[in-house]
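Narrative summary of target 7.
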Amino acid sequence: MMTERPTFIHPLAHVVSGAQLGQGVSVGPFCMVGADVTLGDGATLHSNVNVSGKTSIGAGTEVHAFASLGSPPQDLSYKGEDTETRIGEHCVIREGVTVNRGTPKTGLTSIGDRCFMMAYSHVAHDCRVGNNVIFANAATLGGHVKVGDFVFLGGLCAVHQFTRIGEFAMVGGLTGVKDDVIPFGMAFGANGVSGELIGLNVIGMKRRGFTRDDLRTVRACYDMLFYGPGIFADRLEQAGTAYRDHPAAGRLISFIDAGEKRPVMMAAPKKTRVAGADD
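Modeled conformation, tokenized:
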């Protein structure tokens, strides 16, 4: 990214020798930028921002006051090892956001491009966050969480460590997430209890250009997985046979097949619905 504005470092900011700053970077008052930090072209740190460790921030990303990026992981096993934080291009990171660097288990915490992190949201060590992800205020990820593209995380939700959230999924506010959320799923748990699926993120799918046929097929796959007869393993096998090759519905099957440490979040009874979910 090329920018015509001049690089600006406020006299009250502290940029340690060795930090790499691209063209047109702006560093506001009382910011702290460590020696191993890389700021891409046009990146902006407004004021009172702390960027430490081996941290790279992509071109055009904007960071607001009192955010802390690349700080040591909140993990008692961490002993100061050389690990990284990577934040993509054209992100907006609002006040008080915290992103911790990785631990030696994976070595990296990463956030993709065009993410919007509202105030006081948190990404713990070793997380992998995709592109175009929105964190509402105080949304929180535990360690080693994986978040797909175009996910929306509601305010004050809390995601358990090692959990996966599939692409285009939506997590409601005040929801506890301890199980993997399938792609396109809507997870909700009233008053902070563990969430359950309440349907599909149909509005989000429409906004991303999925067709009516895609919606019908994904819904049919969802119903077979969570409301069909027999045990879940049998339903997964049947759904795999029927939908694995479909470009949209097949994402559900592939996601479940790739499961790691957490079980898949199950669906609520069909009568449980909210506006915008499923039909």
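DSSP finds four helices and 28 strands in the chain.
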